Amino acid sequence: MSSESFRRQLQQEANQWQAEELISSDQLQQLANRYQFEQLETDARDRFVGILLVIGGLLLGIGVITFVAANWQAIPRLFKMLLLLALLIGVNIAGFSLWRSPRSYETLTQRSLDSMSDRQQWQQRLGHGLFIFGALALGANIALMGQMFHLDGSAFGLCFLWGIGVLVMAYGLQLASLGVVAVILINIGFWSVVFNSSVLQQGTLMQSVCQFMPLVIGGLFLPLAYQCRSRLLFALTAIGVVSTFEAVVASVGDRAGDAGGVLWAIALSLPIALLWAYPDSLGTFIGRMMPTFSSQGQLEEVEPDVESMRRFRPVARAIAFLWLSLTVYGLSFNSWIYSSLSVEETLSERVAVFLPLLLNPNFLILGGLAIAFWVCLGWPRIGNQWRLTLTDGVILLILLVMAVLVTWHGAIASIGVYGTLVFNILLFLLSVGAVREGLSRGDRKQFWVGLVLMILHILSRVFEYDTGLIVKSLAFLLCGIAIMVIGLWFERYVRALPVAERSS
Amino acid sequence: MSHSSSTIPVSHRPKSIWRFSLPLLLQVALVLTIPAQAAYTYFAGSSVILQTVPVDPYSLLQGYYVTLRYDISQLDTLKQLPGWSEIEETHINADTALLEGADSFYVIMEESGGDLNSEDASKDTSNTAAVSDSPPAWIPVRVLGDRPSSLPDHQIALEGYYSRGQVRYGLEKYFIPEEQRDEINNHIRETQDSGNPQAYVVEVRVMNGVNAVPKSLWIGEKNYRF
Lengths: 504, 226
Description:
heterodimer, A: mainly alpha, about 75% helix, disordered C terminus, B: alpha+beta, eight-stranded antiparallel sheet, four-stranded antiparallel sheet, 5 helices, 12 strands
């Protein structure tokens, strides 16, 4: 089925065509049937009601949590505990019985499912809202237990266990929304450790989990994202993996030094390399591994919906591109002359830091995956030749330049003003590349990201340096001319494209 | 439908009762097992009385609590104990990185007189404040890097670790009801003004020197237990 925005536009156009007598009312009816125009309104309304119910569930949950926080002594502790447990169980059971449509599924065909009555859809959405409420009620229960026995556990422990509880339910019911709640909870827990710079007690389970957070998040949530085919969950998982990875790198550097800039190079390049080359074939593989359940809860032998799983690479690439842009933007400031070499370490000292670093499972697995992904990307398909597309090649080049420069800066000699120059060129390349790609594909978002990046770049440079007004004016003039030239070039380029290529 | 392509099709959704009830059971088990160890320690552990100073913050999820800073939370106190110099290098001065854990150490507390495990301290004081003399605090006598295998009856080991400038025992929070917060705060202030440094003690239950839970809080001669 085509996208909703296309259907909306088509509906408008078709009505106009009929008014202009380009098509008959019969043909309009056929179009309406084919593209289900009448469902557009109900879809929008359903989504709205769904959002309202989820927000309602969230508010109810926060109400219960606040009740626990009040530590109200008017009812005995045991009674309070039973009350909250009953609430947790009751809300979930109510949610499940509403969410599960009452009709027997064997008698339903896909068509009758589609035309499920309003009442049933309403019930399903209410059930969904109750599941969200139930997820928060679980947190209230855990918090109450901690309060009763004055447990001074870390916020991380609470959030992590809570998240795991919600995640189990998310897997059971294959609900992406519960998965989203769980991934947010686990991230909140992790970052509370980082920002409070609290140290956990060694040898505890929570401490090990914290140390391998990128792998834990990836392992726990990626299969669920595929099972639910949720791009939002995939995006949150991907962001979770790479951001916690940065914290892990910081932690390693905190203890062992930066191994002559190698650690910086890894921190800057690896997450982007991993996300950019993320292959959807991995998703297809995970999808095949994951059991698909039929309506009766039995294992289905049907081929999983491979097409709908091939949808995560654009998400991964969008995150990678934004991440890369921000990184290069940050590095383009003229700070390279100030930062000196990290420490005066001997070569053997650097190697001594570098080796255990390589054996750290976070680096080993994510680094290995990144390399494997890039190999997949350039794997010879036609004519036995290794090849990357132009865009892939440019990204790889930028990542390599970044890694080499940072390592050079840390290990051999300060790159000084050359570093600033190179990163400014890279930033310019990135923004122009994004604008060009966006225009050639007609992708408005990409175009705007590139343009915003370009404007940000120019303004940052003009204000960073104490330049005279003449220079500032010259900069503005040159940028204006450059943008016009790019625009004109683009116009000619698009016109030169054959019609078929343009429409694709 | 366009939105069904972003989520799993309705017909493929698992509706089996087991796919729902097993996760729910697991959730309930999770809720009940988290405090199991603490509850056991709370009811069956042996008592130790610790000298402390209270402060009052708020936790988003669990409400108001009194932050307890014990005598043995201060490095100056610990530094005077035998055994400290052996663990100082490895446990305290070791540069712990952000996500790496800190090693545990054990503080041996000794009873300073009077029978404190006799339940006198907190008898019939459930959820209220009782008035009687506060028990004398136990005295730290030794610090060890490893858990002691056996101790005389009048000694108890408490597990602690050092985290970025603070010594922690997992006993630093005592949750109080919202409606009594002002009363307790006023009481703390009054007692502070009266200038009695021995006024605050906490009764802690300990099991095997690993698990410890705070049981009740003494402010002056008033005992609070929630």
